[in-house]
Fold these 3 entries.
Entry 1:
Amino acid sequence: MAATQRIVIENCSIATVDADDTEYATGHLVVAGNRIESLGAGRAPEGLENVVRRIDATGHLVTPGLVNTHHHFYQWITRGLATDHNLFNWLVALYPTWARIDEPMVRAAAQGSLAMMARGGVTTALDHHYVFPKGSGDLSGAIIGAAREMGVRFTLARGSMDRSEKDGGLPPDFAVETLEGALAATEETVREHHDASFDAMTQVAVAPCSPFSVSTELMREGAELARRLGVRLHTHGSETVEEEQFCKELFGMGPTDYFESTGWLGEDVWMAHCVHMNDSDIAAFARTKTGVAHCPSSNARLAAGIARVPDMLAAGVPVGLGVDGTASNESGELHTELRNALLINRLGAHREAALNARQALRLGTYGGAQVLGRAQEIGSLESGKLADLVLWKLDTLAHASIADPVTALVFGAAAPVTASFVNGEQIVENSRLLHVDEDAIARSTRDEAQRLARIAAQA
């Protein structure tokens, strides 16, 4: 049996994001195989065996890898459209185009979305994909394959829609699945791709899209399916004032009460956005440990509002960060969401006390791991956890005069990623991806975006 190989990282600042927010001004971290073996102040212990690499990380901050909890990869090829719309008008404007995607488009869009996140410190990504046009190919397989090629830990939230325009929903009639078809395809995806092991690289969640594109039957039966299969549940919730009005008109209750009536509150559930939540909504999420994917840039882009993140955290609601689809957050980056979450929440009722730099970093790391149900494996730097970590370069002009490294990372300009590791394997070096050709991805996404635009224009 081959001896376990070790990587030693030294002379760096470390923010562990553990339960005590332990930090080291100058410390070390030892990776053995795919696990963090040890970490602490000063240099690594002498006499370590099978050290295959030593990294002098002077001038760097080491943190857990960032965890993305909400995204729509396919939107990469429809960036820059409907830029002055609110959510409902934006959806109406873009659904006719989205409903014409196919497997090559989705693969290219997934590669673009994953590449942008990975080169910016994301080690665990999620895609909520819910558009499955008839005859479009193996879209789930294309997305999972793109993540595997890049070396990113990945969750596919297998989405679905069965409420179209003729039923009072927003998607075009030809863009939705049947109830039976959606449930069967979702179960097949879980059985084929979900890995429940500790160091799983691919997991699957059951994820009907939203109350205004999904029937009550699909919500209820989707929850039953997820619990029967032992996987998590994800959907959009309480994103806009219009959604709240829609739920009250259609169901006679607000979104949170509706979710509870269909089995969609619980510690195995997380919702995207949750902007318009009152005290009783937050209390219900806290009581049931339902998680939230906070997407500050997308919420601002679509003028949805400011989520009550400080109140959620105070109540004990698990909260992580999400890029959201790149048709509503064109940058496609998660590390910028650390800063945006802090700044946007300070515009709310709590003002300067809303969030601080370390709370923002926790949202993007441990909070995301909680939301995805993987807090025992990732999200903090601790002995025995998986070696998903990032080296942020903070000794350049952009951050040189900021003494505190966590403040520099969150408040300052986007920091370069010198190295990013997933499962102990390096996937980024000097802000460039190691396993894929970024230039080829750029060409492919541009070509597929143009092809989709032509198809949509001819429809």
Note: The chain has a mean pLDDT of 96.
Entry 2:
Amino acid sequence: MTEKKAAPRGIALLLASLSALGPFSIDTYLPSFHEIAEKLGASQLEVQQTLSAYLLAFAVMTLWHGAIADRFGRRRVILAALALFGIASAGCTVATSIEQLWFWRAMQGVTAGAGIVISRAIVRDLFDGAEAQRLMAQITMMFALAPAVAPLIGGWLQTFFGWRSVFAFLVLLTAGLGLACWKLLPETLPPEKRQSLKPSYLGRTYWKVLSSGRFLLACVAVSANFLGFFIYVLSAPVFLMTHLGVPETGFLWLFGPAMCGMVLGSWLSSRLAGKRSLERTIGLGYGLMLGAATINVGLNLTLPPGLPWSVMPILLYTTGMSLTMPCLTILALDPFPEQRGLAASCQTFFQSSSNSLGAALIAPALWGSTLTLALGMAGLLLLGGFAALAHRRSGLLPR
């Protein structure tokens, strides 16, 4: 067995920051939707499609980030992606029409996924087993701050400087992260372990990964669990500002409980690594999510929309979601030790495609009321639960 390298100091924070860049660039501009529509002469649906364009491009390109990183190394691809993301963010800053914003948001999506894909591959380059679960959980814990902090920053930038300042802030943030990676990010894939980009090799390898039942069931579970929460993120302007009467600077009402739940769930996953089997940890997470979804539907059937009861079940749900996510992610990547980057790409593609579908179709269909959002959460949880159960019953989940 190949000896693993010692994890560089601060690697969890750096990888979490890289992983969070994509979600951060989703959530930061949510409070600006109304002004973007007004200033660019667009409808709310057209502004919503800037999010769909981003997520679709994100999904398509994540299928390739890992394969490219398996060929050229982790560090070089990360640095190039950050540079291109900064250029795309600058393009968003100076956009003068909704069509231009669609284009530059799509360009952001093309490069934003590199961080999350390659970070997962770096974790598996460095560690196996319980140590990999701990590092993945630590990354998720810090990554959880992004969805909570992003709309708060975006809300204040929107209030004081307008919507363009949000994208200017992303340019500065990307420059700082690029400098940190230049100085601190090591190369974790030695030249002798790099893979080919020949079409024949890629075709065989993609087929091997995407036809694996073990891989697909884990991906469905992760994606459906996350989408049960993400529909609230995608619906945040309507859910908070229309249904709950929250101002542009009050997005913490949603993202605060979500952040606390994600941090708590990731911390629990880290603490349970090596002490409790993956099967039992995943089961505990689903128990928490099921309780949250049941409470959410019950509250929406008996009470009118309001604070805090319309948002508090999200804390319990994201706790369970984050408890299961590191375990299911590891299970998805483990069958492919020689192609971890490509497998991480396929997994992220699967999840981001689900998110894109959620942005384009599911969230708009559900955001008409808080009850339909609660029912959507419950339905997506059931889909994820059935996938995890099928994974277990097929005898693929280690006990």
Note: The chain has a mean pLDDT of 84.
Entry 3:
Amino acid sequence: MNIEMLFHETFMSRYSSFKCFNEFLRKGNFDVKILEDIDNIPDELFDRHVDRETDFGSWKSMLDRANEEFLSVEG
């Protein structure tokens, strides 16, 4: 799955102050090319960034919501 498809502009604008997921990552100085790269970031560090910069308290809750919304549109 493509990061931009999952965390599209509407999703990011709704739940954060960013227009795209890459802006969100750059703000935290994270180098992510594919979704699996996020697995290499310490959970505590990424959760803190998600909590500070979005409406979500953790990366898991942000990812879960993105997947739910993606599946409801696709399904």
Note: The chain has a mean pLDDT of 93.
